[in-house]
Amino acid sequence: MDRRSGNGVYYVVAALVGATVGVVGSAFHVGVEHLTAAWPAYLRDGLHLTGLPLYVAAALVGAAMTLVSLWLVRRFAPEASGSGVPEIEGAMEGLRTVRWRRVLPVKFVAGLLSLSSGMVLGREGPTIHMGASIAKAASDLMRWPTEDMRGLLAAGGAAGLAAAFNAPLAAVLFVIEETRRQFPYSQRSYIGVVLASLASAIVTQYLTGNVPYMLMDVPDMPYGMLPAFAVLGVGLGAAGVGFNGTLVWALDHVRNLGLSTSFYIFPAVVGLVVGVLMFVLPEATQGGELLAVQLAGERLPLGILAVIVLLRFVMTMASYSTGVAGGIFAPILALATTIGLCYGTALGTVLPLPDHALPALAIAAMGGLFAATIGAPLVGMVLVMELTGAYSMLVPVMVTTILANMTAQALGGRPIYEILLERTLAIEAQGQPAPRRERRRPAHKDMSGMPAAEDR
């Protein structure tokens, strides 16, 4: 029996899914912001802790939030680990299943805990995953066939990105460019994605405001600066390949450590460190979007910027490797900002730079590193424009972004989500030895390749 509905019904459902995602995404965003500020304030102002007692308490809180987040993921929804974007791409390709009944609550609560602990993770991945889960719920309710379900998954994921960054156009382009292999192209599915992203953006703007999330005011850059942006793009292309390779290396080593000991040891250590850093060096914690705006407005010494780059790189690898719920969009953008500022500061020591050159290079770097790691240059260009509102920077951003993507391809780089999906499928195909007492079903695994706690 053909359960395919008319276009009108499909469009209405897509818009309703987008609006729902806007509400859920806004609630998640506000929840993370409030909890991230609440627990440090309680330790410092409520309990009046200072010095060593404050650091010990912060370390314990950070570790507790991390471990509870990981336990929820491993116990109830292993596929909720990490970003969730590879899971959605796999589901659109028919390789994964979106179990929305367990992913939705686990991704929301576990993501709230992991992001609020101060780990260097982004909320966009969980929001995209929750958006696709809401779409899957709607598709199940409508009893739609596979093609419509996959189209609605893309619409829900796009609505999630629109809610996370208030960037509806970049969200539509993300589906077109990032999921070009899986997306079931048709007028029906394409319009559904646009409607879902638009509805999500309207709801998000109504609930949280219509100001670019990383607003930066940068005037036009002279064309004489374009060579500097081109060199930055080439460097970011190489950095993106290194970022992806290091992330996979870290995931593999943490997984091997967990198989030989316990999957909770490394996350506990990371949580302890992050808790202390929330007070000692907050620049090395959290997603970093607001930090990027702050740093772009300051003129920090080159040495300090280099240290921030190193710390955020290390903490991004450590945080994502724990297996908790959290994305990498925001950490990539914040890392790119600090790299751009570092590059601009170094360049300024040998060449005279125009006013506002540092924030301009920081903005362009966001698009460049995004294109080199995610492999979606068009999304990177538009996302940076929508996030910062710096539309005068369009040409320098395009130069930096496309050269970063070209360099990454020339070096053999591949999109990180594609790599992560293939890695998960390969680990799952290998299987795990069954318990000694009985043979059981194959273990469900999260995106880091770790079997769920109940399957060990």
TrEMBL record:
One of its GO terms (molecular function) is voltage-gated chloride channel activity. SUPFAM superfamilies: Clc chloride channel. It comes from the Bacteria. Gene3D superfamilies: Clc chloride channel. It is found in: Membrane. One of its GO terms (cellular component) is plasma membrane. Pfam families: Voltage_CLC (PF00654). InterPro entries: Cl-channel_core, ClC. Its main location: membrane. Keywords: Chloride, Ion transport, Membrane, Transmembrane, Transmembrane helix, Transport. It is a multi-pass membrane protein. The chain crosses the membrane at residues 9-32, 52-73, 104-122, 152-176, 188-208, 228-251, 263-281, 301-320, 332-351, 357-384. CDD domains: EriC. Residues 430-456 are annotated as: Disordered. This is CIC family chloride channel protein. It comes from Ancylobacter tetraedralis. The lineage of its organism: Bacteria, Pseudomonadati, Pseudomonadota, Alphaproteobacteria, Hyphomicrobiales.
